[in-house]
């Protein structure tokens, strides 16, 4: 038995980042992780493998669709799927190995196995009980299930995101249930690799919660890339054999029933907190109606000395949100102030083009009755975007009508996931569109489109 200042349960982006910060702040720290590698969902079966496959399949798409125009002629590469999966595995390995190195460097103990919390101040792993002044639960999330649909990742026919990242072969026909982030990122991967992809979505728009103009534009762009959409469709059941599946859905507008066949069905209808086996009910830890661990503004649960962060609590299920909470709770445990600004958490979809957003949408501001102004700029008028054949999309900046303070920004276009951050910094400082407009932006860069959108909030964009 060992005794620690803090034991963190889970080594995902929330847990591992928190551990490093705790150690940096001088706390004796251990992390319990039941997986064979560190990094949680994100590094093992989430952000990182999906981005490796998005990158590789994007390269193929470029070769097939854009090379010839630039005078690069010849046969496009063919897909060696086992090699692409190997590239993905190597990318995972480099990242998870990197966390193990950081644990050693910061003298963080990795307690291997699955944790339970017999009482506040105690964490049990296997037969051993360890003591801790404080415990941080960072146990993450798992895919949600859908009534009438049985996921079998090993079978490779009806899969969730974990199975979809490791299919035995590229399917001829794929049905994706859910037009959210996972469905569109992984749907894009397989569409680029040659699968016929149909996305079946319950709502009447893709990517719920995003700016409506972005939703419409994004859907059009994805449709041009070959993805098919059936919106307003409630999936009833999926019947699967060893090699095929049939998805039955009802259209909400007229209740008519339809079926669609597939070699692979990807169920991507959301994720839910994972807290199994921790013993939270016995401890009396309060939960929300949606199965999240309830916390206060300092990430403390209802039981003294037990904190929770990341996907297991409320808020967007994003790696960077978990990381920010990880650092902040470490500060709290070290007696400092922990800071997370939940109004400025960017969301990015890593398709091509990328989609990125931060802050309020027009719809939200309308609902709040707040007066706002919109500045918009198209990538068609951005020199760099044209030079790299990526003129699809726009930057849409939303500012307070009176004060010009930036309230939100929604980008669809090249490098959107990186461009959004100058807006995040501006918002963090309470800055205005004019602050961005008066800042010199290098030419020719995609970021000029952000500046032009900021200019459009004032006297007008130059290249519009
Ligand atoms: P997790 O990463 O889920 O880690 C929790 C860890 O706790 C796990 O390793 C688990 O094994 C361990 N654990 C749980 N219970 C116990 C226990 N009792 N004992 C020991 N260990 C335990 N987010 C982004 O921001 N950007 C992206 O591009 C992105 N892409 C994604 C792609 C996919 C396909 C998926 C599925 C998710 C993606 N996400 C992305 C979401 C992101 O992965 C999560 O938001 C993030 O991993 C949450 O971090 P976490 O630390 O809260 O939990
Ligand atoms: P999601 O919540 O983004 O999307 C789920 C979609 O499924 C929604 O559009 C919903 O309306 C639809 N849906 C739900 N039930 C349905 C039904 N019965 N029939 C048809 N459609 C149905 O969830 P997703 O894509 O599974 O992702 C889970 C989480 O992982 C997200 O919260 C996201 O934040 C995170 N993630 C983040 C990524 C990123 O930041 N780039 C990438 C992938 C995941």
From TrEMBL:
E.C. code: 1.8.1.4
Active site: 443
Cofactors demanded by this protein: FAD
Listed GO biological process terms: 2-oxoglutarate metabolic process
Residue intervals passing through the bilayer: none
Record's keyword terms, sorted: Disulfide bond, FAD, Flavoprotein, NAD, Nucleotide-binding, Oxidoreductase, Redox-active center
Gene Ontology cellular component list: cytoplasm
Molecular function as annotated in GO: dihydrolipoyl dehydrogenase (NADH) activity; flavin adenine dinucleotide binding
SUPFAM superfamilies in alphabetical order: FAD/NAD(P)-binding domain, FAD/NAD-linked reductases, dimerisation (C-terminal) domain
Binding, NAD(+): 178-185, 201, 270
Keyword Iron: no
Catalytic reaction annotation: N(6)-[(R)-dihydrolipoyl]-L-lysyl-[protein] + NAD(+) = N(6)-[(R)-lipoyl]-L-lysyl-[protein] + NADH + H(+)
Disulphide bonds in the chain: 42-47
Family: Belongs to the class-I pyridine nucleotide-disulfide oxidoreductase family.
Misc. remarks from the entry: The active site is a redox-active disulfide bond.
Protein name per the record: Dihydrolipoyl dehydrogenase
Organism per entry: Celeribacter marinus
């Amino acid at each position: 038995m060992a005794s620690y200042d803090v034991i963190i349960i889970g080594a995902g982006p929330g847990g591992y980042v928190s551990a490093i910060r705790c150690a940096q702040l001088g706390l004796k720290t251990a992390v319990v992780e039941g997986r064979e590698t560190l990094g949680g969902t994100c590094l093992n079966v989430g952000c990182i493998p999906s981005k490796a496959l998005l990158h590789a399949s994007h390269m193929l798409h470029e070769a097939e669709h854009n090379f010839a125009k630039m005078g690069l002629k010849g046969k496009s590469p063919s897909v060696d799927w086992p090699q692409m999966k190997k590239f993905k595995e190597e990318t995972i390995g480099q990242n998870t190995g990197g966390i193990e190195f950081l644990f050693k460097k910061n003298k963080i103990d990795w307690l291997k196995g699955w944790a339970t919390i017999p009482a506040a101040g105690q964490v049990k792993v296997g037969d051993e009980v360890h003591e801790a002044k404080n415990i941080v639960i960072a146990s993450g999330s798992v895919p949600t299930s859908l009534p009438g649909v049985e996921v079998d990742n090993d079978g490779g026919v009806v899969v969730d995101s974990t199975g979809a990242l490791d299919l035995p072969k590229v399917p001829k026909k794929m049905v994706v249930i859910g037009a959210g982030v996972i469905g569109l990122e992984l749907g894009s991967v397989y569409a680029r690799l040659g699968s016929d992809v149909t996305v079946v979505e319950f709502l009447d728009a893709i990517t719920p919660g995003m700016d409506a103009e972005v939703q419409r534009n994004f859907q059009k762009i994805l449709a041009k890339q070959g993805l098919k959409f059936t919106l307003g469709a409630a999936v009833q059941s999926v019947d699967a054999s060893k090699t095929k599946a049939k998805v039955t859905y009802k259209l909400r507008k007229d209740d008519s029933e339809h079926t669609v066949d597939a070699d692979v069905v990807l169920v991507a209808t959301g994720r839910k907190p994972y807290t199994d086996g921790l013993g939270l009910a016995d401890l009396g830890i309060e939960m929300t109606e949606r199965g999240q661990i309830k916390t206060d503004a300092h990430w403390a649960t209802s039981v003294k000395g037990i904190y929770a962060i990341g996907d297991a609590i409320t808020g967007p299920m994003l790696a960077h949100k978990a990381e920010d909470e990880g650092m902040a709770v470490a500060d709290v445990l070290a007696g400092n102030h922990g800071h997370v600004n939940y109004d400025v958490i960017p969301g990015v979809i890593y398709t091509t083009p990328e989609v990125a957003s931060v802050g309020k949408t027009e719809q939200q501001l309308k609902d709040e009755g707040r007066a706002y102004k919109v500045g918009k700029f198209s990538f068609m008028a951005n020199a760099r975007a044209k030079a790299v054949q990526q003129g699809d999309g726009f930057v849409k900046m939303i500012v307070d009508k009176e004060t010009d303070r930036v309230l939100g920004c929604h980008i669809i276009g090249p490098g959107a996931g990186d461009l959004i951050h100058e807006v995040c910094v501006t918002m963090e400082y309470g800055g205005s569109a004019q602050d961005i407009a008066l800042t010199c932006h290098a030419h020719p860069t995609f970021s000029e489109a952000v500046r032009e959108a900021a200019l459009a909030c004032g006297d007008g964009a130059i290249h519009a």
